[in-house]
Amino acid sequence: MDVFAEYLAGIDNPEHRARMEEVLGWVANKYPHLEPKIAWNQPMFTDHGTYIIGFSVAKHHLAVAPEKEGMDHFSDQIKQAGHDHTKQLVRFKWDNPVDFSLLEKMIEFNIFDKADCSTFWRK
């Protein structure tokens, strides 16, 4: 998790920093084979050099980006859970608990779906 230390230190709101640290720690502990890294000024996790999941902090939410394919695959579940979203990311509002169940499904989908992917992004 040292790779995220500078990023986390740059989050001004202590509650947002703690939440981001919790989420990043959860991913790192649950999926120890994923490589934590900072790219495009965002914390993310990769598997054999391919993107799996990325995160960013906004004023009202923690954004989770599983790539468009992940968003498409979980579109109904995201809507049913009541999460605000775009075509590229899910917004977990700061005043709600993190939806670790959905996060787990998105990560595992990408690990499985990109098992043979040899590029960073899907083509």
TrEMBL record:
It holds the Pfam family DUF1801. It comes from the Bacteria. Residues 16-111 form the YdhG-like domain. This is Iron chaperone. Gene3D superfamilies: 3.90.1150.200. The lineage of its organism: Bacteria, Bacillati, Bacillota, Bacilli, Bacillales. InterPro entries: YdhG-like (IPR014922).
